[in-house]
Amino acid sequence: MAMKTTLFVLSMFFATAALGQQFVGGYLNGQPQPYHSPEHPQHASYTAIAQETSLYPNTGYPSAQGDRPASDFPQLPSPSLGEVARELRRQHALVKKAPVIWENQ
User: Rounded to two decimals, what is the model's pTM?
Assistant: First the structure.
């Protein structure tokens, strides 16, 4: 009982403090304050395109462009669908079964 009373008193105290923060520094003004978007006097115009610049620093490392053949990236052969199904069936057989079976009647 004392815990509930203490909790209630603390919540009322914090609610009063929160409402009191609204009025610190003056009063609430009821006048509407319309939003004014900032103005940008510059407009879009056509200009010359700047020179191309590299994002990479000049480090002296050689680089190449082009495609590499798929044989450069060996991959393991993917298992067949039958092998995957057999593995899943084997794993399902090893899982512990529920001791009770419920039937809705």
Answer: 0.28
